[in-house]
Write a structure and sequence with these properties.
alpha/beta; Rossmann fold; 2 domains; 8-stranded mixed beta sheet; two-stranded antiparallel sheet; 10 strands; 20% strand; disordered C terminus
Length: 289
């Protein structure tokens, strides 16, 4: 399936709608006070959010690492400026400074998200908005993963997935002075704890000056001073999460699938089992834009 068809899929539409509601509300409130006039959408995909930002009165530029995405986005939005460029490309900051730098669903697809954040910071005049898939846990850590070859994954099919605190740490260390989490987060399963599973997505903001908004809560820079003596506890925590995932995959998920097959076979409507089957499934496939 081409990336253009993937990004038009129903689950992307649902995710985008929930994110767009928060973005629209926030920018409607803060566009004037923050004097936001220009914006760049980094990792624009087919231009969904580029179009939204333009509709809110921002002068738009957009970039994406996949040429076919840029071509389709330009076809849908011929009045905008588009460039084929990766967020890790050292020439990205040469596009200039923008009041708003917008980067949704991208950083966790990159081999070097910290480098990308440095590039985003170099282009940010006032505000950076980031949305990303995150790992569970409080420590600022990343996990290197093989993403597979689907066209909605990274260009090189290998990426670092960060914890939320890792993203926040990178914001501060790249030069931003303030970091914020959206509160509430978008109304979508990926942003909520459910059935004992942690939320797998977050939406953050970073700036050079303090922002006063009812939709943001400040997040301090995480303190990281892991010594060799701490490595065992960190490794143990990660090992437990891996073991828990393995148990779910090997035993719990097959049981749910079996219950669904039995339900269809005998014609019973097990609504409770279906609810527990459906929501973990959404959690098992969180790695979308």
């Amino acid at each position: 399936m081409s990336s253009t068809r993937i990004f038009d899929a129903e689950h992307y539409e649902s995710l985008n709608a929930s994110r767009a509601a928060v973005v629209r509300r926030f920018l409607s409130e803060m566009k004037g006070p923050l004097n936001l006039r220009s914006a760049i959408d980094v990792g624009c995909g087919l231009g969904y959010f580029s179009e939204l930002l333009r509709s809110l009165g921002l002068d738009m530029t957009a970039v994406d690492g996949r040429r076919e995405n840029v071509e389709e986005a330009a076809r849908r939005n011929p009045e905008m400026r588009f460039h084929t460029m990766s967020a890790e490309d050292p020439s990205l900051p040469t596009l200039g400074e923008f009041d708003l730098v917008f980067c949704f669903g991208l950083l966790y697809h990159l081999e070097n998200p910290f480098l990308a954040i440095r590039h985003l910071k170099a282009m940010t005049r006032r505000l950076l908005l980031v949305e990303a898939v995150i790992l569970p846990g409080e420590a600022p850590l990343m996990n290197l993963v093989d993403e597979g070859s689907s066209e909605d994954q990274g260009l090189n099919h290998i990426a670092f997935y960060p914890t939320e605190s890792c993203l926040v740490k990178m914001f501060y260390r790249s030069g931003f002075r303030f970091a914020y989490r959206f509160a509430p987060l978008p109304d979508h399963p990926g942003y909520r704890w459910a059935n004992g599973l942690p939320r797998v997505r977050t939406m953050l903001a970073a700036s050079f000056e303090p922002i006063s908004s009812s939709l943001l809560e400040g997040v301090r820079e995480p303190v990281t001073s892991i010594q060799p003596s701490d490595a065992a506890s960190v490794a143990g925590s990660m090992a437990w999460r891996s073991a828990r995932t393995a148990i779910r995959t090997k035993f719990w998920h097959p049981l749910l699938n079996a219950s669904r097959s039995i339900r269809h076979a005998i014609g019973l409507d097990h609504r409770v089992l279906e609810r527990f089957h459906r929501e973990p499934a959404a959690r098992r496939h969180p790695f979308d834009q």
